[in-house]
From TrEMBL:
Record carries keyword Amino-acid biosynthesis: no
Record carries keyword Kinase: no
Protein name from the UniProt record: RIC1 C-terminal alpha solenoid region domain-containing protein
InterPro entries: Ric1, RIC1_C, WD40/YVTN_repeat-like_dom_sf, WD40_repeat_dom_sf
Organism in which the protein naturally occurs: Protea cynaroides
Amino acid sequence: MYMAYGWPQVIPLEVGLCPASEHIVYLKIINRLLLVVAPTHLELWSCSQHKVRLGKYKRDLDSIQREGENSQAVWSPDTKLIAVLTSSFFLHIFKVQNSEKKLQVGGKQPSSLFLATVSLLLSEEVPFSDRNLTMSNIVSDNKHILLGLSNGSLHVISWKGEFCGAFRLHSRPLPTIPVGEPVHSLENGPHSEGSLVALTSNHNSTSSSAVIQLELSLSLRLLVVLFSDGQVALCSMSKKGLKQVESIEVETWLGSGDAACASVASDQQILAIGTKRGVVELYDLAESASPFRTVSLYDWGYSVEDTGPVSYIAWTPDNSAFAIGWKLRGLTVWSVSGCRLMCTIRQIGISSVSSPMVKPNQDFKYEPMMGGTSLLQWDEYGYRLYAIEEGSSERILSFSFGKCCLNRGVSGTTYSRQVVYGEDRLLVVQSEDTDELKMLHLNLPVSYISQNWPVLHVVTSNDGLYLAVAGFHGLILYDLRNKKWRVFGDVTQEQNIQCKGLLWLGKIVVVCNYIDSSNTYELLFYPRYHLDQSSLLCRKSLLGEPMVMDVFQDYLLVTYRPFDVHIFHVKISGELSPSNTPTLELSTVRELSIMTAKSHPAAMRFIPDQLPKECILKNHLSSSSDPFVGQPTRCLVLRTNGELSLLDLDDGRERELTDSVELFWVTCGQSDEKANLIEEVAWLDYGHRGMQVWYPSPGVDAFKQEDFLQLDPELEFDREVYPLGLLSNAGVVVGVSQRMSFSASTEFPCFEPSPQAQTILHCLLRHLLQRDKKEEALRLARLSAEKPHFSHCLEWLLFTVFDAAEISRKNANKNQNSVPKNATSFSLLEKTCDLIRNFPEYLDVVVSVARKTDGRHWADLFASAGRSTELFEECFQRRWYRTGACYILVIAKLEGPAVSQYCALRLLQATLDESLYELAGELVRFLLRSGREYEHANSDSDKLSPRFLGYFLFRSSYKKPSLDSSTSFKEQSAHVTSVKNILENHASYLMSGKELSKLVAFVKGTQFDLVEFLQRERYGCAHLESFASGFELIGQKLQMNNLQSRLDAEFLLAHMCSVKFKEWIVILATLLRRSEVLFDLFRHDMQLWKAYMTTLQLQPAFAEYHDLLKVLEKELSSLPGSEK
């Protein structure tokens, strides 16, 4: 799949003769060449590794005034001719030729770029009778071009400039459905010999809609005609293409009456129709053009008012993804399954401009395609997406894309590494050193990629230590451990290899090589320690072009068209090391020729038999003598239409499993790691349903499917995250999503692929427990215990099992026949609790699940998990006070308020002893509220609901009840008195030890009434023996160079002033150097001032405050009568 990376590049274009009306007419890429047609000129660029303008043709002003500006254009498939129609209906045919002038682009290696000349070959007026017509785009085959007009007619012109006639589609579509109304069913339009009528005899035709777009698929023999009334006609053609006009017949009418553009994916047989509503509708051409999916930005908060209608759709070369451009704003790339892979529009609410109508002087980071998208074009490899902004004529934006391994075709796959590869680099997911996934950019050696651009195949070895990378010729290996590249020493040998696919066979890299001279294919086997002809282990000629290949242990699968399967056994003699000369032999062990009308296979993977490890090891050791022992007997087949099936290699029978699959991973038998967490899984697949996991199942049904989307909604991959592969040692699926970073020094944001991890551990554990494999589940859980997501997995395991048990219980109440199933569900709940009880996270997990469920069902949960008071006591003994606090509400619900109050009082004393004042404050508020409710005769325990649990545990907007005499403490019940005594005792303890910072935190956390306490303890624990000793002690407790200590001192000073506690006011104000407070105090008590001044002057420890004395002395001396 495709992920954008890096900054968009800008390709500058020349300014035309009429810059005010300039816009790009045509954009097309063929054979590494990019053609741009503007109203007054043409430009030809190289779109290979180096973006260089190779040629151009500029029309003169006289030609433009006489014949009009360029209006529509088309490029012949062989790139030799360009046809341009002007606004005054003149046809220009240009010839493109390579000159002998070679370009030098830098570096030691010679360039393969040549300058091109574009010359006018033909110019003639088109014989249209009506000069007020407008034209659609132009499509072509090798012999003819076709264009549509606003009067509904279609005209065929040969590449020699000959007008071959015109015809009109007889338009009788379905009644137009109003815009915005969903299409529920589509019927075929008329299909008769009279659907095509010659223009001369078509006076009675009802067609009056203009043709606004044409799409041509020669491989499907399909012509798509889009009319201005929003209707789309699908027309069949003959093998001879546009030459036989009479064979073009309307087969189907599509669209909801608001179609704006269309694009055909020939390989996938999908038609994408963009609408005026800003939505793209996908139709399956293999299934009678039935609609199967829609994509839009509605779920991301953008409507058609923001983006405008769809203006352009462009499919990637492999048809696995498509780009969408909107008229007013933005560009996105989507997978066929509906995953949003890339988006230039910033998400609403993140300092973004959410409206397309943006004033130029607004201050915001520039967004690509902010003014809308007019044209899009992928390069032939899918590494670049070229886009032209609406109304722009001075530049083309080029977005760089990396491709995720889709596990399709001839190249193999592995699960040890996740790699995204670009045209000249690899983006490798790093997960070894840290739990956080990171993306490593690995640039290929310039000496290799400059001659063999671009990267075409990337495969990781099974042990995850090597990467095999193949460009246009040759291949190179990268040692991930030593960070070194290995290349062919002989460049001639490298250039003789044209790699069409790569596989790893243990420590051997297998190359599917195409021999251009003989048009044949062969397999080359190289040891990874040496890339050279002298080390070649084997050369195997193939019968033809392989369609699909795979490797498992010593077995190699090769599939030819249409569906011929050959399986080879690989026997290696000798040790694979540079000091030895090992040999490799291939022997055919199985051949199948399968006759089927289904679509071609896109990927095939061996399915190992589910045997105990001892048997597999034994069979593997004996396989050298008997190639049939341990041979896989089944394989998974993914077809190009997304159908996944299981093929029995013994009898050739194929069993369909599911559809709409984009990629899959066979996990059983693929990893030799001891810490493999997913060995119980047979395979996983991904499609528009999300992730699906398949487990081996004994009995008649060979495999049991478990759908993540149905059973685990939280496991459904986000529609912005596309899965890359698996980390078997962590039990997670690794995906990648787009992030954008902005910089003040760049015009555009940088696109950053961001790896994401999605755990599947709780699904695996539940699967094992369902099959009563308790020991295996415990072993799997212990292997995962150190993973950062482990606690989360246990929580979701218990939650999903408990939720299923509750659903089963409700069904049992409705239907008495469901009792056995209900018992099974509760048995699974007990097994789950028994499993989690082996881990210290158990106490947290149980109460976390309780917080997520209705309090009415807590009794069922704790009947299996254990008595709530016992779990609380265990938390209390372990000093897990916050977890214990979470159990208080559960105890109140299940055991009654008296028990919960007793537990809360114990916990309150313990949290105060540990200085956990925020938690203590939550307990105080609970105790006061619970006490008041308990005293009322009509108290209802149902008030203690999970909603209050959130209020109790977290900060909320509710007003906190305070412990003042006017509210809580007026109720002099034994319950409230206990809370008051505990808080006052703790406050006295803190004040006696002058732990002032803790005292402030205590008051703030519990809302303790400090004023009342100070008034009562003025001559008690708050009393200071002497000013000097008190000043020194408090100065040590409150370090004024610390910001928090200064804030605490300010807090205390405010309270001391409210109770007029002079000695404390003097000390705190001095520490804070609050001269205005001291001045206000001393001006009314000069005797206190003299004692204060004498103490500070006589004590050497207080010398730092002499400057404060001078300030006060100066201010006091200015008072009238101060001398007296």
